[in-house]
Amino acid sequence: MVPTHSGLGMIEAMKQFSIGQALSHFVRRFVRVFWRSLTFFHLILPTILGQAGEAQSTIHFQNGDWLRGTMAAYDQVNGVTWSHADVADTMRFNISQITGIALAGAAVGKIGSGNLSEVQLVNGDQFRGNLAGATDEHFLFDTWHAGRMQLRRNAVRKIAPLPKGLKTLYQGPENDDGWTHGKINNETLGDSGQWRHHNGGFHAKAAASIARDLGLPDSSHISFDLDWNGAMHLAFALYTDSLQPISLSTKENEPDFGGFYSVQINSYSVNLLPVKKHQPLTYLGQATVPNFRKKPKAHIEFFASKPQRMVAVAIDGKVIRKWTDSRGFAGEGTGVRIVHQGRGAVRISNLRVEEWNGRFKGPPTHPIGAKDDLVKLANNDRMQGRVEGVDGDKLNVTTSEGGFPVPLDRVKQIEPATSRAPTNVDIEHRVRAHFSDGSRLTFVLNRWSAAGVEAHSPSFGSATFKPGSITRLEFKPAKK
């Protein structure tokens, strides 16, 4: 049986409240219990029942309750200060009872030109910034959300310089403006639902389609974070000219459409299917992903090249399959369509679409605890020694044979000497912050105000972040 679409199934006076008093006082009007048994959705899917359009933040509690409103402030003594449009007094909550806060109104800022790099830390955190230099103890980065940051050398797992001149075509979603919601008519998939935007992501539970013409270039790189609960069946139409879903089983009866590639992702595998009208459907091959059954989230990347007639998929930084289409590149449009098959519930966030230079990035391989830095070059050569700094667009590397200035456009990635020590963070006040550009950083939250988010971490010392750059906070409860 042929699946549907690109798919698998046929498509103001301060008042102090204890957590119990506050929830008891306001429960009848403001707190709604949502799928207590599905802990995963306490944080990422609070509005899937139809209220996702409201531009309000949401605070989530350990017992599964959640409350809309606005985060007014935070400090370690008073906890979270929360306000609601229908309540004159502000409320305060101890973070020991809070699992997370989803923040509305965040926007993606821009960073000035420089040596833009992707940075991964030993603890799994990641962000983008301009590599500005290096000292004996630190790497220096200029960021849009915190200005100049100093990262301890032994806390940095990987620095991957990004090619200059490549355009970012899309970054978001900040809302669903510009996206087309499609209607799915299929008995197997059930009633058509809709992707809903909330706090920087698209959510879906029922079968749903959403699409946009992103102006995909001949070589493109698409990346996003994917979260799911239960079964997961998604289909991504790449290089499509149709913003409406296509039923593959009856594609000859569909309105005319140009060819596209269907990347089909489920809980077990990833498939690639070229789709053209009046041509038989033939899969190019499957990649098995057994770990999907054991996890609720992943970072997904699609790479495509018309000249090479190639499509590739990477999961959590590792390329799992490259397909070459011997019949020529099937994609005839410049859009992307995302179809949820109506099984389980999913969230797509941190979506970024960029031009691609044909280079694949790779996960770090330099052992943690190594004494020297490792520099991997684009031609697969390696240099082992110490990164001394940056001079313009050149990386200064000292090896046993002397010092060498290496053009950054020849550097694939830098893997510094590391240790696990910087990952230790005071757990009582530790949070993980998710930023609107896809960055995520773990730190001790000292203070939150309109002026800035003050934080510190063994990885980067002290920093002040722009409040409007953060979309979500995950709180780590203290160990008992």
Features:
eight-stranded antiparallel sheet; disordered N terminus; mainly beta; 480 residues
Description:
Helices cover 3% and strands 47% of the residues. β19 and β20 form a beta hairpin. It is built from two helices and 36 strands. Strands 12, 14, 15, 17, 22, 23, 24 and 26 form an eight-stranded antiparallel β-sheet that branches. Strands 13-16-25-18-19-20-21 form a seven-stranded antiparallel β-sheet, with no helix packed on it.
Outline the fold blueprint.
Layout: H1 19-26, E1 31-33, H2 40-44, E2 57-61, E3 65-75, E4 79-83, E5 91-93, E6 98-102, E7 116-121, E8 126-134, E9 138-143, E10 147-152, E11 156-161, E12 168-172, E13 180-182, E14 196-198, E15 201-204, E16 208-213, E17 219-229, E18 233-240, E19 260-266, E20 269-275, E21 285-288, E22 297-305, E23 310-315, E24 318-324, E25 335-340, E26 345-355, E27 373-377, E28 382-391, E29 394-399, E30 402-407, E31 411-415, E32 430-435, E33 440-449, E34 452-457, E35 461-465, E36 470-475
Antiparallel strand pairs: 1-3, 2-3, 2-6, 3-4, 3-33, 4-5, 6-36, 7-8, 7-11, 8-9, 9-10, 12-26, 13-16, 14-15, 15-26, 16-25, 17-22, 17-26, 18-19, 18-25, 19-20, 20-21, 22-23, 23-24, 27-28, 27-31, 28-29, 29-30, 32-33, 32-36, 33-34, 34-35
